[in-house]
Specification:
The chain has 253 residues and is α+β, with helices and mostly antiparallel strands. It has helices at 6-30, 36-70, 82-113, 122-133, 187-197, 231-252, and strands at residues 165-171, 174-182, 200-210, 213-222. One of its GO terms (biological process) is guard cell differentiation.
Length: 253
């Protein structure tokens, strides 16, 4: 029996080892490439869908802005762009709020002047008595962080009884405050200075008086460097500031 040379055996072995690799490579080459046309069609469909959605969103926004603009006097809208309309609406609402507070104060004064003889029927007398028993502007402070003149409600603990009614709402860096307290000399100027020291920039301020009370409605921006990050922090700082103002006023008397 003739034994094949060593070199022949090596060549045959290498050829057998290469066959699986060649088969794998063959299978890899047979893979079909994705259809470029289909991908382009899908991308174009998605693009057109996004355009349609954005067009519909802008249409709805313009309709809402048109309705909002129709509810305001022309003097509150300087231009027709979105920022002007929204800004004008905010100012208009604040003016309406101030008007409502003024009318409520006037209504309270009138009820105080009504004599028992003028209130002929029992229903009118009971209604007037209920309104007079409630402190003025009570309906404007629904969930105060500090309570002074109002009857404590479920949102306010007894430990928070204070020298002023203080209610704070906070949305991102915009804070709205309502402060009800007794009027005092140089009170407003000290409040403004106090807000500046707290890094709270006053954007809008309404003052409604009903002797001996005064209601401050304040819109403020939380500036950089302000250490007050919650409604409780702001209410606590404002309460402390008012207490100092009251103490200074008492010392001068």
């Amino acid at each position: 029996m003739v034994t094949p040379p060593q070199c022949c055996r090596s060549t045959a072995t290498e050829a057998m080892e290469r066959r699986p690799n060649l088969a794998v490579q063959g299978r890899k080459k047979r893979r079909r490439k994705p259809r470029v046309c289909k991908n382009k069609e899908e991308a174009e469909t998605q693009r057109m869908t996004h355009i349609a959605v954005e067009r519909n969103r802008r249409k709805q926004m313009n309709e809402h802005l048109a309705v909002l603009r129709s509810l305001m006097p022309e003097s509150y809208v300087q231009r027709g762009d979105q920022a002007s309309i929204v800004g004008g609406a905010i100012e208009f609402v604040k003016e309406l709020e101030h008007l409502l507070q003024t009318l409520e104060a006037e209504k309270f004064r009138v009820l105080q002047q009504v004599t028992p003889a003028a209130a002929a029927n029992e229903e009118t007398t009971n209604t007037n008595s209920k309104m007079l028993s409630s402190p003025p502007f009570a309906q404007f402070l629904m969930q105060p962080q500090y309570t002074w003149s109002q009857i404590p409600n479920k949102y306010t603990s007894k430990t928070k009884a204070s020298i002023a009614d203080i209610e704070v709402t906070l949305i991102e860096t915009h804070a709205n405050l309502r402060i009800l307290l007794r009027k005092g000399p140089t009170q407003l100027s000290k409040l403004v200075a106090g807000f500046q020291s707290l890094f709270l920039s006053i954007l809008h301020l309404n003052v409604t008086t009903l002797d001996p009370f005064v209601l401050y409605s304040i819109s403020a921006k939380v500036d950089e460097g302000c250490q007050l990050s919650s409604v409780d922090d702001i209410a606590r700082a404002v309460h402390h500031m008012i207490r100092i103002i009251e103490q200074d006023a008492t010392a001068l008397c």
